[in-house]
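#struct-help
A.M.: can someone run this one for me? Single chain, 83 residues.
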Amino acid sequence: MWADRSGQDKWAIVRIFDLSESGVRLELPEPVEARAVISFSSDDMEVRGQATVRFCRRQGTKYVVGAEFVGGTAWKPRTPKYP
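D.P.: on it. Structure tokens below:
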């Protein structure tokens, strides 16, 4: 979820390309302003929180967004569970 230029809340189901301890790169159906704060949640990747948009680039009909985690949001890779 994010707010567009007019302040309207927007939301979309997105695809995550990269996820690191400090940020995320994802694909959105429309552009997002740099420095906008996005809120997100992924049960599969076990991460949720907020991030600040660092860049937004058009790629075909979609937009690739790179965002840096803020507000205490963090992610750690899962450790393999061995019997």
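A.M.: thanks! The chain has a mean pLDDT of 87.
D.P.: also worth noting: The first strand starts at residue 2 and ends at 3.
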